[in-house]
Specification:
The complex is a heterotrimer of chains A (about 280), B (about 375) and C (about 280). By secondary structure, chain A is mainly alpha-helical. Chain A is about 75% helix and about 5% strand. Chain A has 2 domains: about 140 residues, no CATH class; about 70 residues, no CATH class. Chain A has 11 helices and 2 strands. The model of chain A has no long low-confidence stretch (mean pLDDT about 85). In chain B, α4 packs across α5, α6 packs antiparallel against α9 and α10 crosses α11. Chain B has a two-stranded antiparallel sheet. The chains are: A mainly alpha (about 280), B mainly alpha (about 375), C alpha/beta (about 280). Bound molecules: adenosine-5'-triphosphate and magnesium ion.
């Protein structure tokens, strides 16, 4: 894991990655496609219902089937299917795969496969690992469907369908908006510091730079929060947040919300049958 | 005695299997994805975390009033960024801090925890980082347990020292370490109860597969060695930077710099209560009527009890098949007791260290007393 | 003469940190007047605008708007607060502060929503403001994905949808390209022509004579150094130099390869036969 890249470079790379990812999602969500065209409230309710049905399923086939549904929705929404599959299944082995690996050997159960050096994979172990991997992979896929087909500000407003209060929605909106700003500020801080240093920073220097950046960022955040409050006040804000959405349910939206929820309900019932 | 020796050996083996994965996990944040926790666990954790959000919003309203919305939004954005900072570790690797300790020390546990929770919600909803059904769990672990533990420890050790005192830097560091370890412990307990209650008819664990005795050491040890150290270090570094250049930021939590009214003993009491809660909460799962736990754990340990052979796993299946074999129940008792003992011992060691450090610092600051 | 929009009597203002920002300022601004506030960095322009917008209250002296003193107590009265916010709009110097919503549409809708207008009216106002500033195509964009000039337009639209009769503009030309700048000048002139009061803080001397009936100059001591017509102020090079609004320096003219020393402000007419850009 030792790498030539220092902590600063990695942080910069991660910031770049986050910005890229959010731009990617934003671009995708504005392209034509089935899910993109649906009312965001339908998507939230429908995809959450499917997510829950993945979560409660005791049957691998049902989870597999639900992954199929996710793939089909990605295809009809004209999402880049390669990226959709890769994003889930290339990352998963590193995290969940590593977690699941020992379970293959450690879960007591009938032998499925004997390996050299007396290592034994049990049937139960294989099943439990499969459950974990497919469940996580399918859940992430449904979350991605939501994120990739809904612009974040639309998604936010649609949260009101889950009875999230206006004030909380405004907080989430402002947080997201200022994350973008602060990321830019950190980026500039690190880049300007790096440009003044020849070669690699020492670890101690890096630590000092990180602490100083975090401290400076806190100062800037506090200052922004005061100023933003003034800006809100100036435009008539008196502590009662309001949002305006322009959502309108069409017959198609109703049909899809019924369809997705019904599908989730069926999956939930069938999923209770073990297998 | 035989059992205990084998138990230790068994744990070493488990840890070597886990070493790589766990060390990797530990340097990342402990965000639980969807699929690790059963829906019931997820719902319980949502239910647990909501009162704390409410409390956080109340605190926000009384402390900063109408300004609350931009204030919490900017602090949540700040928490989000801090979670992205890579901190250099010896050996050329880097790791992440959660930043919950820093948030708690700066804003108090109620508001700080709320800021961290909002950052976590944004990560889950807009970046697919951490599960959506697991939002309650992640917010409980990192937005409730961590900030409150951090706050207690920081208050206990920091005491009434002036804001610029070195003692506060130490307090911040220890608070970070303890808070992260506590967060990892709670996360491990959440994982560990899954195979106790949520299995298929044939006993296949449906969610996180490892029982408490595996999940806890596998989470705790690497965290204590890596992630908790990072959390402590980040908190202390930023804290000491703010001491030098922005003391006003350290007074946001409302507590005046050197309040004479705040007495040491009260804070200590909270620390002890906190640690006691941790001590009780950890092995609680064992005392629960966990048949599933018995199944799994006893088998593993039974395996050890009979001088361990790797192929034994399969062979033991037949032993396992014998319902209620006498030694199983006996063994289950032993394993649980050993586990409870080690958890208590660990907490005692931590508490002792904290106490010693506090005492030493107190002596240095008031040589007369 | 009509009642002044703003009347300041010996106003002082210091920040909590103790930093002095305005000292002993007395002035009044009449309805329909177009004012430019000049001053170097840190002289107190932004602070003055925030005081005029009732966001800060004087630490000394008295500030009246529409005949009523602007104090914390006055703003505690919800009816007054509501009426005042409706009449006065401030465009902040930092667009990142001004644009705090998730999308351009939300940003422009924020002020009308706070006015408790019916939904249809809010939408109508938003659409009109976006049309006027030609930002309809930005409607669903997030503020952090806008260019500097686009952010300015959205910031203006977010106040325009409020329909204020007094505009307070804090350095609105910063970061604008020449075309947007001249568009902005037209915008200010149009507001003035519609009888609205416009107070603009700026360093940009080139636009002053177009957008001002009267100029207020603040010195580095945070005091009002001078007030007068644009012609009076702009011809007073000593004053401008003293207030750090121009600088003495060497510069070269392409047609005159020999450098020569002179005093000027950029883009303004001076007797070297440059083309005037303002
Ligand atoms: N929030 C604040 N807290 C403390 N001091 C402040 C604050 N804002 C401004 N100041 C100080 O008040 C003085 C006036 O600042 P102000 O922002 O009004 O200047 P300005 O004329 O708008 O400058 P610029 O041209 O750079 O925008 C400066 O000395 C500044 O440092
Ligand atoms: Mg200014």
């Amino acid at each position: 894991m030792a790498s030539a890249r220092g902590a600063i470079e990695r942080t910069l790379a991660e910031i770049g990655h986050v910005l890229e990812q959010s731009l990617f999602a934003e671009t995708l969500s504005r392209q034509p496609g089935l899910l993109q065209a649906l009312d965001p409230r339908v998507k939230i309710v429908g995809l959450l219902a499917l997510l829950v049905s993945v979560s409660v399923s005791r049957n691998l086939w049902v989870i597999g089937g639900l992954y199929g549904v996710a793939l089909a929705l990605a295809v009809v929404s004209r999402l880049p299917v390669g990226a959709f599959v890769r994003r889930v299944w290339l990352v998963l082995p590193f995290f969940t795969g590593m977690v699941a690996l020992p379970a293959l050997f450690m879960t007591p159960g009938p032998t499925l496969w004997s390996l050299p050096f007396d290592w034994v994979i049990t049937r139960t172990g294989a099943l439990t690992a499969l459950f974990l991997l497919t469940r996580v992979g399918t859940s992430v896929s449904f979350a991605l469907l939501l994120i990739w087909t809904t612009p974040w500000n639309t998604l936010l407003k649609a949260l009101s369908v889950l009875r999230v209060p206006d004030g909380f929605i405004l907080i989430l909106a402002m947080t997201y908006r200022y994350i973008a700003l602060l990321l830019g500020i950190v980026d500039d801080m690190f880049l300007s510091r790096k440009s003044r240093v020849v070669g690699k920073l020492s670890t101690a220097d890096e630590r000092r730079l990180l602490a100083a950046s975090a401290g400076a960022l806190l100062g800037r955040s506090l200052q922004l929060s005061t100023e933003v409050y003034l800006a809100m006040q100036s435009r008539g804000y008196r502590g009662r947040p309001r949002t305006l959405d322009t959502f309108a349910m069409t017959a198609r939206d109703w049909a899809w919300s019924f369809g997705l929820v019904a599908l989730a309900a069926v999956a939930m019932v069938v999923g209770q049958v073990g297998g | 005695m035989q059992t205990i020796r084998n138990l230790t050996r068994r744990h070493w083996r488990l840890l070597s299997v886990y070493g790589l994965g766990a060390a990797w996990l530990a340097t990342t944040a402990m965000h639980i994805p969807d699929g690790y926790l059963s829906p019931i666990t997820a719902i319980i954790l949502y239910a647990l975390v909501i009162p704390f959000w409410y409390r956080g919003l109340q605190a926000l309203r009384t402390k900063v009033n109408a300004r609350s919305i931009p204030m919490i939004a900017l602090m949540a954005a700040f928490s989000f960024i801090i979670m992205m900072f890579n901190v250099p570790l010896p050996g050329g690797t880097t790791g992440h801090a959660v930043g919950a300790t820093l948030a708690a020390i700066l804003l108090g546990p109620e508001i700080g925890g709320l800021a961290v929770s909002i950052a976590l919600i944004i990560q889950a909803l807009f970046f697919g980082d951490g599960g959506i059904t697991a939002i309650g769990a992640n917010c409980f672990n990192m937005g409730v347990v961590m900030p409150y533990v951090a706050w207690w420890v920081y208050q206990a050790i920091g005491g009434t020292a002036p804001l610029a005192a070195n003692r506060r830097v130490v307090a911040a560091a220890i608070a970070g370490w303890v808070a992260m370890t506590a967060g990892a412990l709670i996360t491990a307990v959440e994982f560990g109860v899954q195979p106790m209650f949520f299995t298929a008819a044939d006993g296949t664990p449906l969610y996180a597969p490892y029982p408490l005795d595996v999940a806890i050491p596998a989470m705790i040890i690497p965290h204590m060695l890596v992630a908790s150290v990072i959390e402590g270090a980040v908190t202390a570094l930023v804290f000491s930077y703010l001491q030098r250049s922005n003391q006003a930021a350290l007074q946001l939590n409302g507590a005046p710099a050197t309040s004479a009214t705040q007495t040491g003993p009260l804070s200590y009491r909270w620390l002890w209560i906190g640690l006691a809660v941790m001590a009780i909460a950890t092995p609680l799962g064992l005392l629960a009527p966990g048949t599933a736990w018995g199944e799994w754990g006893s088998d593993e340990f039974a395996d050890l009890g009979l001088s361990y052979v790797p192929t034994g796993l399969a062979r033991l299946e037949s032993v396992w098949g014998a319902p209620m074999a006498d030694y199983e129940i006996g063994f289950l008792g032993n394993a649980s007791a050993g586990y409870v003992l080690s958890a208590l011992l660990g907490i005692a060691v931590v508490a002792g260290l904290v106490w010693l450090l506090t005492a030493a610092l107190a002596r240095r600051q008031h040589p007369a007393s | 003469m009509a009642e002044p929009v703003f009347a300041l009597q010996n106003v002082d203002f210091a920040y909590d940190s103790g930093q002095m920002a305005l000292q002993d300022v007395s002035l009044s601004i009449c309805p329909g007047e177009r004012i430019v506030v000049l001053g170097s960095n840190g002289s107190g322009k932004s602070t003055l605008l925030k005081l005029l917008d009732g966001l800060y209250y004087p630490t000394g002296g008295e500030l009246k708007a529409f005949g009523r003193a602007l104090t914390e107590a006055a703003f505690a009265d919800d009816a007054f607060n509501f009426a005042f916010r409706r009449r006065v709009g401030l465009v902040f110097q930092d667009t990142d502060v001004q644009l705090f919503n998730a999308s351009v549409f939300d940003e422009v809708a924020f002020a009308p929503l706070q006015l408790d207008l019916p939904r249809a009216d809010v939408t109508a106002r938003v659409e009109a403001a976006m049309r006027d500033l030609r930002i309809e195509r930005l409607r669903d964009r997030a503020p952090h994905r806008l260019s500097g000039g686009e952010k300015r337009r959205v910031a203006l639209a977010s106040v325009l949808s409020l329909g204020p009769e007094v505009w307070l503009l804090d350095e609105p030309t910063t970061g604008l390209d020449p075309r947007s700048q001249s568009w902005l000048v037209d915008f200010i002139c149009a507001q003035g022509a519609a009888g609205r009061t416009v107070v603009t803080a700026t360093h940009d001397l080139t636009i002053v004579d177009t957008i001002a009936d009267r100029v207020l100059v603040f010195g580095e001591d945070h005091r009002l150094a001078a007030a007068g017509t644009p012609a009076e102020i702009l011809s007073n090079s000593e004053l401008l130099l003293a207030c750090n609004l121009t600088h003495e320096h060497w510069h070269r003219h392409p047609e005159k390869p020999d450098g020569h020393r002179h005093l000027h402000y950029h883009g303004a007419p001076h007797d070297h036969g440059h083309e005037r850009t303002g």
